[in-house]
Amino acid sequence: MFEHLSAVPQDPILAMLASYREDTHPQKIDLGIGVYKNDQGDTPIMRAVQQAEARLLQSETTKSYTAPAGSPVYNERVAALVFGAEHPVLKDRRVVSAQTPGGCGALRMAAEFLRGCSDRSKVWVSTPTWANHMPLLGGAGLQICQYPYYDHDLKAIDFDAMLSALETADRGDIVLLHGCCHNPSGADLNREQWLAVAELMQRKGLIPFVDMAYQGLGSGLDEDAYGLRMLAERFPEMVAATSCSKNFGLYRERTGTLFIIAANAEQAATAGSQLFSKIRSHYSMPPSHGAAIVETILGDPALNQEWQTELGEMRERISGLRQRLVASINASDIDADFSFIERQFGMFSFLGINPQQVERLRLNHSIYMIDSSRMNVAGLNDACMDYFVSALREVLNS
Ligand code: LMR
After folding, report:
1. How far is residue 33's CA from residue 184's CA, in Å, rounded to a whole number?
2. How many A from CA of 374 to the centre of ligand 1?
3. Model-level pTM?
C-alpha cells in the first residue's frame, strides 16, 4: 500500500534549515529557524543548564518510567514561573499541569483534549501565525478559523480587525493568543489591548488558549506573562502551552508544559484524568532529561539567578540587535522605513520584502529567511550586519 503515497512537502522552517546547512558560502547567514544565537553565531548551552546537567549526571539514580504527567516537581516549578507563585488559580488548585515533549507536544495534547471536550470545537488563530499551529491543532480534529492580526502595510497589529473578527465567534469557541513575542510578526498586544480582548472574550463566552513559547525573551519573565496571568484570573476555563526550548535553550531536549485551568479543583482533577489518558495513548509519557534540568535550575536559587541573568543578556542582545539593524539601515542609502523592527519583541519580525526578494537574498547572498520574510533577528551579529544591510540594499534596488 505504500506505493500509493505521495510525498508531503517539508515544513518550510525545517526545509530552510536543511538548505542553510548545505550552503558553503563563508558569509552565509541563518535568519530562518527560531533559535537564539550569540555574537559568534552559535547557539550555546546556557551556563545554568550546563551546571544542572553536571549535577544530574552525579545524582540521577534511575531511568525508570515516570508518568503521563511527567515530573510533578517540574510541573509545580514551571507553573510558578508561568503564572507567578501566588496566582489564585494555583492556590485554588484549579490548574492541571503536564510536562510535555516540547511546546509542540503541549499544543497537540491541548488540541486533543479540547477535541475530546466537544467534537464541534473551533479554534481561532491569528493571521499570520506560526506555520506549525495549523497541523498541530487541525491534526487533532479542531476546526480552524482565523482572525486578522498583523497588517503588512501598517507593519503593526490591525487591532480593530482582530476584534471585529472575534465578535463573530460562537460561544465556546477557543481563541489562540501568543503570550508574547508573536511568531512570526514580533508584534505583541499591549496591556490595554489584552484587556480589551479579555473583555470581548468574556462577553462572548470564548475560551482562551495561550501559547507562550518565548517567556523572558520579550520584555522580562513577569512582563511577558502579563496576558496569560490576567486571563487566568478572569476566566473559569483556559488552556496554556509553554516551552523551555528558547528560554532555557533546550530545543532538542523537547521540554514543554501544558496547563489546563478548570472552574474548580474537582473539575481540574477530572480534566486531568482525560488529559493523562490522551497522553498515555499518544506517547505514554514525556522524555525526562530536559525537564530534570529545568526542575534543577528552578529549585536552586543560585542556578535560578544564573539562568535569569543569562536570559536577560539574551533578551538585551536581541533588542540591541533590533536597534543596530534599524540604525545600520538608516545609515545606508536604503530609502524605506524599517523602524517598526525596534518596536517589536522577541526573535522575529517580518522584514517586509516580497518572496522574490527573499529568494534573491538566499541565492545571491546566502542569507536565509522564510519566504514570508520572517527573519530571526537573533541570527544577526555585528560581524555580519554590514553584509546583511548591503545585501538588503541590493535586493531592494534591483
Ligand atoms: C520557529 O518558529 O522557527 C521555531 O518555533 C522552531 C520551529 O520548530 O518551527
Report:
1. 11
2. 11
3. 0.97
Nearest to 383 by CA among 339, 328, 334: 328
103 CB near ligand 1 (under 6 Å)? no
Pairwise CA distance, residues 21 & 374, whole Å: 19
Q: What's the structural domain count of the chain?
A: 2
The catalytic site residues sit at 130, 211, 246
Q: Which amino acid is at 272?
A: G
Q: Are strands 95-100 and 256-261 parallel, antiparallel or unpaired?
A: antiparallel
Residue carrying the nine cell digits 536559587: 301
Peptide bond into 68 cis (omega under 30): no
- List the domain range (segments joined by +) for residue 32: 10-43+316-397
Residues 211, 126 share a domain? yes
CA of 212 to the centre of ligand 1 (A): 13
Span 68-124, pLDDT tens digits = 999 999 999 999 999 999 999 999 999 999 999 999 999 999 999 999 999 888 999
Q: Are 291 and 255 in contact (CB under 8 A)?
A: yes
Strands 150-151 and 156-157: antiparallel
Rounded to whole angstroms, how far apart are CA atoms 65 and 76? 19
What is each CA distance from 155 to 53, 311, 328, in whole angstroms? 42, 27, 19
